[in-house]
Amino acid sequence: NAGVMQNPRHLVRRRGQEARLRCSPMKGHSHVYWYRQLPEEGLKFMVYLQKENIIDESGMPKERFSAEFPKEGPSILRIQQVVRGDSAAYFCASSPISIATNEKLFFGSGTQLSVL
Amino acid sequence: AQSVTQLDSHVSVSEGTPVLLRCNYSSSYSPSLFWYVQHPNKGLQLLLKYTSAATLVKGINGFEAEFKKSETSFHLTKPSAHMSDAAEYFCVVSEAAGNKLTFGGGTRVLVKP
């Protein structure tokens, strides 16, 4: 049973380009969470999705950032017109049910985004 | 609102000596508390979690943590550090009514031979 798979591991973009980060949850998991880790900081919640639905996006910047989790395929975190401040490690986590019931999250290895 | 404070950003110990990583939290609800470890270029791995059962929680790799409600603390300990324990450790709180995890700033552990 493969774990949470994120790709790419490293992504380099120039300012103004788009970044697409992919996350395939563990088999049987229908809940996906995205977190961002800025240099020298802890992880910060961004968004929580179930299949085809955004449940909580209170941690997402209001502009340029979007996320989806389609019925088929991986969850995608999309950053348009990237700026240097977007450089960070982006982690995806999945769980079989909502963590409101204290279920454990399984984390991927992250995508390191570097904006030149 | 919930928050987590890890009191030490860096901890350095000698191999074979005890490790103590301090964590204080605040939460409006009955929280669940976790410790995660992150090795370089790896994802986060759950060490242990507290969910209102026993206040002393045993985790993997010899780690344990004690929930002290009166002190709002959830410190992580290990009696004897191993070189493989060198990593970054995150204390995390989750409110029972919410879906978000709130992470502390992390403590980087260095183990000297």
Uncertain segments of chain B = none
Rounded radius of gyration of chain B (Å): 13 Å
Tertiary shape of chain A: globular
Mean of residue pLDDT values of chain A: 90
What is the CA-atom radius of gyration of chain A, in angstroms?
A: 13 Å
Could you give the distance between the termini of chain B? 41 Å
Helix and strand run of chain B: EEEEEEEEEEEE
Can I get a quick summary?
The complex is a heterodimer of chains A (about 120) and B (about 110). Chain A is mainly beta and about 120 residues long.
Question: What are its keywords?
Answer:
heterodimer; A: 116 residues; mainly beta; seven-stranded mixed beta sheet; four-stranded antiparallel beta sheet; 11 strands; globular; B: 113 residues
Q: Can you offer a commentary on this structure?
A:
The complex is a heterodimer of chains A (116) and B (113). Chain A has 116 residues and is an all-beta fold. Chain A has no helices and 11 strands. In chain A, strands 2, 4, 5, 6, 9, 10 and 11 form a 7-stranded mixed β-sheet that branches. Chain A has a 4-stranded antiparallel β-sheet with strand order 1-3-8-7, with no helix packed on it. In chain A, a hairpin with a 5-residue loop joins strand 4 and strand 5. Chain A is globular, with a radius of gyration of 13 Å. The N and C termini of chain A lie far apart (36 Å). In chain A, 35% of the residues are buried. Helix content of chain B is 0%, strand content 56%. Chain B is built from no helices and 12 strands. Chain B starts with a strand and ends with a strand. Chain B is mostly beta strands and 113 residues long. Classes of the chains: A mainly beta (116), B mainly beta (113). At the A-B interface, strand 5 of A face strand 6 and strand 11 of B.
